């Protein structure tokens, strides 16, 4: 499956659209963050042009991702598959993604196993690593950080009096015309009917 043809028409358009979303700078920042957290991880910098394969290469087997999760949440992945068999490597990625959900990450922030293993949607993998970094900080991880912190809820509470004070007001979006009419408007010549 790794040598799947890219296709023509709509499939090629979608592949090009995904390729344009890939940002090599963000990918390098993500890899640098993984290096800082994991420690025993080395990889080459991702080039600006066609760098998706260079980004996927060190992460494809899922071993580094499992080690990353064990640093963020110690003991979360007990057995990491070192095998070179495709389904074992994909199992490592699946274990990582399952632990990401256990951290409280939304499925929207995650990527799918094939997005990484077959390089189907590499920009989503980069975004997923940024999301892991945000969620790790929320869950008490004190190591290096990547990207902005996750937003916190700003819940507002209004008294009953404050809520009722707005009932009699017509909002600007309600479309009030304040008594305007079309009287006196004339567009173009009138139609002359002559007998």
From TrEMBL:
GO biological process: actin filament organization
Coiled coil regions, renumbered to chain: none
GO-annotated molecular function: actin filament binding
GO cellular component: actin cytoskeleton
Region (Disordered): 174-195
Residue intervals of the Calponin-homology (CH) domain: 24-137
InterPro entries: Calponin-like, Calponin_repeat, CH_dom, CH_dom_sf, SM22_calponin
Family matches, as SUPFAM superfamilies: Calponin-homology domain, CH-domain (SSF47576)
PANTHER family named in the record: CALPONIN, TRANSGELIN
Family recorded in the similarity comment: Belongs to the calponin family.
Full protein name: Transgelin
